[in-house]
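Page 37, top half.
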Amino acid sequence: MIQLNVNPKESLIDEKVHISVTGLSPKEKVTLSASLAEMNMHFHSWGHYTSDQSGGVEVQKMECGGGSYTGIEPMGLFWSMVQKPGQREGLRLQKKDVTTPYDIKVAVHLGHVPQESLDSGGALAEITIQRSYMSEGVTRVPVREGRLRGTLFTPRGVGPFPCVLDLYGSGGGLIEHRAALLASRGFVTLALAYFRYDDLTKDLDFELEYFEEAINWLSNHVSRTGVGILGISVGAELALMLSQRFPLVKAVVSISACHCRTSVRDIGIFISFRGERLPSIELDLSKIQIKDGICCIRECVSDSSDINGQINVTRLNPQILFLHGSDDGFFSARAAAKNFELQLKQAGKDNYETVLYQDAGHLLEPPYAPFCQTSFHKVFESQVYWGGQARSHVRAEEDAWKRIIHFFKKHLKIVDPVSKI
């Protein structure tokens, strides 16, 4: 009897699972597949295997010979998911309702099945598993305090817990999945929207005072000893600017930040503080590279620093973890890493760590979600190239997530909370 085993059947998105098949004939060719549907988006993956002499397949140990991934990849069925044909191009899978898991159907098919035949039926065995961002016991509370719009996630238990402000980038909206996962790993986390959500501005024109309100709110209600900030892309640049102005920010993880404030003609990305707009460098859109309808803006920012637009990271002394991918499709990661490090060295600072991941791209997310090299960008109104080579990018995400958890646990003090929300 053919049996398909996936253990555990319920897990967090950053946890590995063990997939195996038993009861096959020796040296039998089979295809393992995984599929999910989320918000009318459909993704799937597939891998070709050949059973061993005992009629078994162990994904953790065996070579995948073809499909959406190759090689020995225990989590390949998850990170290599691609959108199914027949949908609009440029989909990016992001969990909208973090209170519910992904329901993922894993199946085994006879023979080395091509992509176009995966949905034709006839699976030898199949099982549905659940992958979540929000663990049991984590609480989710919408935040509408003054101008603030976001969601607060609190870990299970009585605490106290370290506290993190979570900022995403130029796509806007309220993105909760990373904050929910951080709470599942023991951090009170505020996922903060700052434009294109609810009654917030639809323009990329931001006041640092808005984020100051969020930091003060967290300090008054959650942690009087200060907060950490986790930011990616524009969110990382904001995190760095905030860390140099507000002493309550004790630790920052900066993912894929540019070394300078950038603006885009007819689009914006302007930042002001105390009524003054901060200097920025306008992207040179004539240097956009377009291939097959996909835009790469990496060359639009000069590698050399304009001191007026440069993000200064030397004023205060928060602990900073810089994470970059060498194949970032949005900015020159090497230039950014070099600039930040040069600033800090010249200032005699040692409060930072820099990691440049070879062949990783811009979107360093929690591990094992589908790798996204290109997707539609709402602001640019086109498909954009985020960069990264799949296997290298996934390895980077595995390492980066471990570093983020360790970094915040090390540098955020835990004392009795100010109040329980």
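Page 37, bottom half:
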Amino acid sequence: MSASNKVMIYLEEQANARPDLAVQYGKLSTLYQRRLWHQLTDELEQFARRTDLGEQNLVQLYQHFIREFELKLNPLTLVKLAVAIIKELKTPQEGLAFLLTMLEKVKADVGARVLVLATSGLLQLRMGDITASKESMEKAQQNMEGVAGLEAVVYTQFYKLCVELYKVQHDVEQFFESGVQYLHYVDLNQISVEEQRTMMLDLAMAAITAPAIYSFGELLGHPMSKQLQSWPQYAWLYDLLTAFNCGDIHAYKRLFEQSPAASDSVLQPHAVELRKKICILALIQLVFARPAEDRNLSFADIAAAADIPINEVEWLVMKALSLNLIKGTIDQITQVVEVSWVRPRVLDNSQICTLIDRLGQWKQTLANTLLLLENETATEFGGFQ
């Protein structure tokens, strides 16, 4: 019996065994017979996304159907199907062995290679092999260098690997940076509310505690952040993150230093460092609130904004300078800090409104300057004819 006949018999048997999927099996059969590989690829992707297939369905579909023409499929689609198939396998070892057979078949396609490597890294991580997982991540990263425009699923899987690997390694800053990238590409419809909440909780904790993280706008601006805000047990953490983003030290004191939920949280051991961090952010917010031509800040103004003694202002400014959050000079004699630059960051709605107001003021200043020039020119040359 030819391979084609075996395929047709298998699809017919499956259609009879699963009347609820008979239409789908019929479409697969028709497209296969007509050799419409592109359309068949699309149909297989849709079929693999179904949640009512039952155990081992995709495994059997691959063994009895897809294997016969897999090299005719789009390489990235073939790997996507492989990723769906390994979810039905019993152990990560089986999944890894199956997935690695795909690497040779899709070696000519960058996106497909990266997806294989990233998924392999996740499986290795589940097996407890951190070294192998890191190697897979590095290989995937090398494949991505100089390449743009890969499909979102590729970036999603790569950054998911980075997130999980850095979490295991307790690398808070890299975990946060990778997590933000993951949020750029992930389809929220593909992950549960529980997973979204856990991710946001971890990212919020990382953002607040990481020594070098001073920008929270991207995280707060992502739709997933609403999962944290609507989670009664951790709604205070969303508000605390917002306070850090705005440099609002009074909100910080209310939420962290005076909140029972916060006082019992895992953030408590970091209390001293968090206080220093919010003071620096209060300084940044003070600078941001000033127009570019008026950024000479007195020690007294900084002390009031950061809620610190005036003798701690110089340390605070030097710390912000060392972190490259601002650029400027300190005049110890006059006790004035002249700020020439502040690190760009993603703004929230209130900060955008401040920027809009400032642009409005700048526009009015330009209009007044233009009017002054016109009047002076008219006086000098006797008016315009």
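Margin note: The first strand starts at residue 296 and ends at 298.
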